[in-house]
Amino acid sequence: MMKNNVVIRGLGRYAPEKVLTNADLEKIVETSDEWIVTRTGIKERHIVEEGQFTSDLGTEAAKMALADAGMDADEITHIIVGTFTPDHLVPSCACIIEKKLGIKNKVAFDIAAACTGFIYSLEMGRAMLALHPDAKILCIGAEMVTHRVNFTDRTTCVLFGDGAGAAVLTNDGEGPELLDVKLATDGNLGSLLTVSGGGSASTYKPGETIRDDYFIQLQGREVFKHAVRSMATICEEILEANGLTKKNVDVLLPHQANWRIIDAVGRKFDIAPEKVYSNIDRFGNTSAASVPLALSEAVETGFIKDGDLVMLTAFGGGFTWGSALLKF
Ligand code: ACO
Using a 6 Å cutoff on CB, does residue 220 contact ligand 1? Predict the structure, then answer.
């Protein structure tokens, strides 16, 4: 296993100002605040304004992370964006964020790992830093999930929100250390969570109306089951690989998909509920944005303290899943 001393120099986050509450959803589909809160823990989610796109959310989060790192945008050498809702297929969201940050001649690319996109970007960041020790990497998770949500389907539309989070990674300077990252996939289970319309296997002819496949489609119970099992397993694997145990973990910060999933992962981990970070009540599932958004918030509010060992974990379509260990 390769090791290097990667430091998180700065963190940032952004959520659109517009809020969609459960009461608002009650007016759109046959649902209730009681059902949504009981089944998911979500009370409200932030959604984009007209004319606001994934790259705008990612750019704002990046600016906050750069300010936190005390760095100018031009010092950045690489921009890696985890997203399944880029502004366009081409150019990539990372290229648009580069432009919106007012910089150029960097290395910028997107990663398609659904909700695990940010954890994947951390691993790509580490790899880049091993190849280019002087690199300064902007890892971003940014999503406008509501663009791919069918607001006539009550089984999915209550779950998601929009947002972004960002981290600046370097090999030097002050900040929490990124001790390790572990990733996994199982493409055999891909059909349980899909967004296929518009892809090369599900094309649209000019003038054709969009079909249900344009939107997120998921087998909720199956996804739930795999999410809990996979996140718990990969957290144990990364601890073992680093000679650590559950008892060493001060904060568990899982992907914010559903409060019951977060709770179940925490229980499997045998970690006290007050050590598990969650903001799902206010943001819903923001896919690749959820982990960095929550991490930035947890540091700023003092939930994560100096000296803490923090475990990040995520699970998403693909299936993809991963974990990361940070030492504050
Ligand atoms: N309001 C009211 N009733 C609803 C709603 C709603 N919004 N949605 C579903 N129901 C009904 C169903 O129709 C069903 O009714 P029935 O019993 O008459 O058939 C009943 O509630 C129970 O439905 P289930 O799907 O069995 O409910 P469940 O307890 O499994 O919860 C949920 C559904 C919340 C989707 C859960 O399975 C879950 O969170 N799964 C994980 C999904 C997820 O987070 N996916 C994203 C993963 S990350 C990524 O990559 C995007």
Answer: yes
Residue in the block written with tokens 């607001």: 151
**What whole-number percentage of the chain has pLDDT above 90?**
97
Cite the active site residues. Answer: 115, 255, 285
Low-confidence residues of the chain: pLDDT under 50: 1-3
Domains and CATH numbers, the chain: 7-174 (3.40.47.10), 179-327 (3.40.47.10)
**Which token pair is 327?**
């030492």
Number of H helices, E strands in the chain: 10, 13
Residues 6+ apart with CB under 8 A from 219: 192, 193
Q: Taking the model in full, what pTM does it have? A: 0.96
Give the residue, by CA position, lying nearest to ligand 1 atom 23. Answer: 155
Atom of ligand 1 nearest to the CA of 145: 51
Q: Tell me the β-bridge partners of 138.
A: 79, 168
Which atom of ligand 1 is closest in space to residue 159's alpha carbon?
A: 44
Residue 197 CA to ligand 1 center (angstroms) comes to 22
Distance 51 CA to ligand 1 centre (A): 30
